[in-house]
Every structure is written in structure tokens, then in C-alpha cells.
Amino acid sequence: MARAGLTADRVTLTGAELADEVGLEHVTMSAVARRLGVKDASLYVHVRGLEDLRGRIALLAADEKTIRIAEATAGRAGKDALVAFADSWRAYAHAHPGRYTATQIPTQIDPELAARAAGPRRAVELTYSMLRAYELAEPDLTDAVRLVRSTLHGFVSLEAAGGFAHARPAEASWARCLDALHALLERWPASREGDPS
């Protein structure tokens, strides 16, 4: 029988909190059960296993991050929107490192659960919307979306791993990276003839 008050959402949130504290790779069903004060078997009434739990954490994180980015970019355009978007992305990665990691790891997510989750789809829509002011047409717009996501993810991942040991503050480099991204987006190179779309 399921323990009173224990739900899939509560198990997911507990797993997410644990991931932020100890790292996603150290989250186990046993660790989540201990945190909740239940036996391991009680969790399986609500989640199918560790892979399912990680998928649920990824969807939770995608929703949270997307809400923050949407709030930060509302009513902004161009460089102002780009900086707000990027700063929100980075702030979320700093505040929730385990959850952020979950969004970057391929997991087997229950298709029905994934279909109900707005976060991942909304994240893509927000990125395209944020870049609208740069007036890029396809396939350049998709290439620009991939560049922005790769740049932001690469920076925050290297930063989290301690990859910026240089004396120059990471904050200063972050600001310059965003300046450079903005400059590139404003002067996007013409597509090569015959480029596959």
C-alpha cells in the first residue's frame, strides 16, 4: 500500500533536491527512500525505477528553467532578450546543478508523461522567439538556436566542472561571450549555396 502523502511529484521533487545537493549521478532509489523516511519498495508505487525518476527530474527542471527564462525575457527583444535569456539559463544551472544535469542526459521518459510536459517544447519555442528580432530565416534560424544553446550549455558546464581556472573572472568572460553572440547574430553569415535545409 502507498504511504499517505507520498506521490510521484513528491518523490520527483525529493530526487531533484538530492540531485542538487550530491549530484545526479549519486541519486539512487534507496537514497530518495531514506530522505522520505520510507522503504525502497514504497517508491515503486509512484515511479518505475531510477531511469523513470531521472526522466521526471529532467521534466521538472525543464519546466522550472523555462518559466524563469519566460519571465526574464517577457517584453524584451534583441540583445536585451538574449542577455536575459542567457543569464536566466546560467542562474538556473548554478542554483540547481543536479536538475540542470538531468536536462542534458538522454533518459527513457514515459511518452505519456513527456506529452503532458510543456517545459521542453516551450524551451524550444522561447529560444526561437528570443531570436526573432535578429530576423533570421531558415535554415539560419535553426543554426542560430543550436549555436546559442551550445554556447550557453558549454559555458555553464565548463564553469560547473571548474574548467575556468584563469585569473580573469568567469563573469567578465560571460559578458563578453554574450556581446560576441549578439554581434554574430546581427551579422549572421550568408548561407552557402546548396546548404542542406
Automatic annotation (TrEMBL):
Gene3D superfamilies: Homeodomain-like, Tetracycline Repressor, domain 2. SUPFAM superfamilies: Homeodomain-like, Tetracyclin repressor-like, C-terminal domain. Residues 28-47 bind DNA. Keywords: DNA-binding, Transcription, Transcription regulation. Pfam families: TetR_C_33, TetR_N. GO terms for molecular function: DNA binding. The keyword Isomerase does not apply. Residues 5-65 form the HTH tetR-type domain. It comes from the Bacteria. This is Transcriptional regulator. It comes from Nonomuraea glycinis.
